[in-house]
Design brief:
- The chain has 584 residues and is of the alpha+beta class.
- It starts with 8 loop residues before the first strand and ends with a helix.
- The chain has helices at 26-32, 35-46, 98-105, 143-153, 167-170, 191-197, 216-232, 234-241, 248-253, 275-281, 322-328, 337-350, 354-370, 388-399, 404-409, 413-420, 441-449, 460-470, 476-496, 508-517, 524-544, 557-560, 570-580; strands at residues 9-14, 19-24, 60-63, 77-82, 89-94, 109-113, 120-125, 128-133, 161-164, 178-180, 184-186, 200-206, 283-287, 297-305, 313-320, 428-429, 432-433.
- A six-stranded mixed beta sheet has the order 2-1-6-3-4-5. The protein has a six-stranded mixed beta sheet with strand order 8-7-12-9-10-11.
- Among the domains are: 6-206, Aldehyde ferredoxin oxidoreductase, N-terminal domain (Aldehyde Ferredoxin Oxidoreductase,  A, domain 1, 4-Layer Sandwich); 233-429, Orthogonal Bundle (Aldehyde Ferredoxin Oxidoreductase Protein, subunit A, domain 2), CATH 1.10.569.
- A hairpin with a 3-residue loop joins strand 10 and strand 11.
- Helix 19 packs across helix 21 (524-544).
- It is built from 23 helices and 17 strands.
């Protein structure tokens, strides 16, 4: 690491005392590299055992990596905390401008300690930190409005990041998200609720630092290599053209698109809500995270009438990706694109994780359908597959609950099913609601064993699809070992904060070369050890906080609905889980 590199500095913000300090921690970044590798070490230092996730002792760690601001697609910020949703490791990644802004402000990580006694938002402007009164912003339901107000108040347009919560975070819904740059989010595991518990409405970061490189000519050559690899890649071109919504039709074709709470893997409205259909009929523009040439973020232009006026319309821009389409489309039986987009928009405006929200609503719909709950619990809402207008009303009740049922929904499907029944069709894994892939056992093993219980931990859906296309037979031990190796390598990418879409570009050989340009010598073996150590530390934190792989619940529903590889077998998953955690 070059001596003048700001990556080694950690900004520590004390919200209770409204003070800040800057710590020089070259040891931390030498050991953990950046991103996830540094964040887990800071979480070990900052979060006491048994901490209340919604108490002041739960810290928020934001960390970036050594390639941020220097190379394309190194554009993520890792947030780490104790999750109020699962009670153990909370980790969420977001793009937008957050990573570049933190690096340009002069920091490799930001630690948010304690809790404010009154609503506040924090402004980090290079070496200066300001604590602004957020009383007027507290209670605003929309994260969009909060962002607009802060943009008008604070300087630095075009260079800053504005990270903020909506009403769901204030109300500490356990899967509340944090919005950054309007269309990007720290989505999963409840970071928004942690912000709300700290009375922290937002965080603004800006700076104008320069970043050193050891060899400008070699840097330019290396930069050109990754840039060309990114823009010339057929897969990256597909991300640009259709975004992740390109997954809808292929998954539906093989029976892997979760539909109506996974009663089926095929949706009759798949073509209507597909990436191809959205691009042809609704695409308004594409946007990119900072320092990314791909522009995979797709925004739909939706024309909506004003109330009681048939001749005047407003056009709103709404982001869409595969996961929101699955969660608010096929999972709820919604084939209306305008309806699906408005439901996505409602959840994101109030600051809810869209994936968890869709799964929660799907469970509630089936519970009502089966008579497990009644209209008394739903406060008179007749939740029905495809009825997007009623689902919008349900979202509003989750955020401002009129009764205990909606309060239970605000803690996720695992919690709600534990109180009302229906656990056999409650689609949560390790407490986190499922993603949009019903491809086979490897996908479910990822959900069960991944450090974040995220489909992106080890991408088992890719292994399933490859096996299905080649007619290969998967074994529990083979799947577990392959996913463990993949997750260990993804810890390296998460420490560099490289977008996982670019994993084919950022190979071990290229990572070695790119790190050398910024003064960091790491061999492929060094990187492998770093990834394994980061994953081991995450598992140790989870175990410390009560996680036990032997107690993981496998929902019956995933065994009942055939996948492209046939019926998912419970014994297969149990053997694979044991293999994955063997030796820990």
């Amino acid at each position: 690491m070059l001596p003048s590199d700001p990556l080694r500095r950690v900004l520590v913000v004390d919200l209770a005392r409204r003070r800040f300090t800057v710590e020089d921690r070259p040891d931390l970044f030498e050991a953990g590299l950046g991103g996830a590798g540094v964040a887990i070490r800071l979480l070990e230092e900052e979060c006491p055992s048994g901490a209340d996730p919604l108490g002041p002792e739960n810290p928020v760690i934001l960390a970036v990596g050594p390639l941020v601001g220097l190379f394309p697609l190194a554009s993520k910020t890792v947030a780490m905390f104790k999750s109020p949703h699962t009670g153990n490791l909370g980790e969420s990644h977001a793009g937008g401008r957050s990573a570049v802004a933190i690096r340009m402000a002069g920091y490799g990580a930001i630690v948010l300690r304690g809790a404010s006694s009154t609503p506040v938002y924090v402004v980090v402007d290079g070496d200066d930190v300001y604590f602004r009164d957020a009383s007027a912003l507290w209670g605003m339901r929309s994260a969009y409005t909060v962002g607009r107000v802060i943009r008008e108040r604070e300087r630095g347009a075009g260079m800053r990041t504005i990270i903020r919560i909506g009403r769901a975070g204030e109300r500490m819904v356990t899967y509340a998200c944090v919005t950054t740059e309007t269309y990007r989010h720290f989505g999963r595991l409840g970071l928004g609720a942690v912000f709300g518990s700290k009375k922290l409405k937002g965080l603004v970061v800006a700076g104008k630092r320069s970043l050193p490189v050891s060899n400008p000519r070699l840097y330019r050559e290396t930069y050109d290599t990754v840039f060309r690899a990114a823009v010339d890649s057929p897969l990256m071109q597909k991300y640009h053209e259709l975004g992740t919504a390109m997954n809808v039709l292929p998954l539906d074709a093989i029976g892997a698109l979760p539909t109506r709470n996974l009663k089926s893997g095929r949706f009759e409205g798949a073509e209507t809500i597909s990436g191809e259909s959205l691009a042809a009929n609704y695409l308004g523009r594409r946007v990119a995270c900072a320092h990314c040439p791909v522009a995979c973020i797709h925004l739909a232009a939706l024309r909506l009438p004003y109330p009681n006026d048939p001749y005047f319309y407003k056009t709103v821009m709404l982001g869409y990706d595969h996961e929101p389409i699955y969660a608010m489309g096929s999972m709820l039986g919604i084939a209306s694109v305008p309806g699906m987009l408005q439901l996505i928009d409602e959840a994101e405006a109030v600051g809810l994780d869209v994936m968890s929200t869709g799964v929660v609503l799907a469970w509630a719909t089936e519970a009502l359908e089966r008579g497990i709950i009644s209209l008394q619990e739903t406060d008179g809402l007749a939740l029905t597959w495809g009825d997007w207008e009623t689902y919008i009303e349900a979202v509003r009740r989750i955020v401002d609950p009129p009764n205990d049922f909606y309060r239970a929904l605000g803690r996720g499907v695992e919690h709600a099913a534990s109180l009302y029944g229906g656990a056999n069709f409650a689609l949560a894994f390790g407490g986190n609601e499922m993603a949009g892939y019903h491809t086979g056992p490897a996908a479910y093993l990822t959900y069960l064993t991944g450090a974040r219980h995220s489909h992106l931990d080890s991408a088992g859906y890719s292994l399933d699809q490859r096996a299905a296309s080649r007619g290969e037979m998967l074994t529990p031990e083979g799947v577990a070992d392959a996913l463990r190796a993949e997750e260990e390598w993804r810890q390296v990418l998460a420490s560099l904060v490289v977008c996982f879409f670019a994993r084919g570009v950022y190979t071990p050989e290229f990572v070695e070369r790119a790190l050398a340009v910024v003064g960091i010598e790491r061999s492929a073996d060094d990187l492998a050890r770093l990834g394994a150590d980061a994953l081991r530390r995450k598992h140790a934190f989870k175990t410390r906080e009560g996680f036990d792989p032997a107690r993981l619940r496998i929902p019956d529903r995933i065994l009942e609905t055939p996948s492209p590889l046939g019926a998912v077998d419970r014994e297969f998953l149990e053997r694979a889980i044991a293999q994955f955690f063997r030796g820990e």
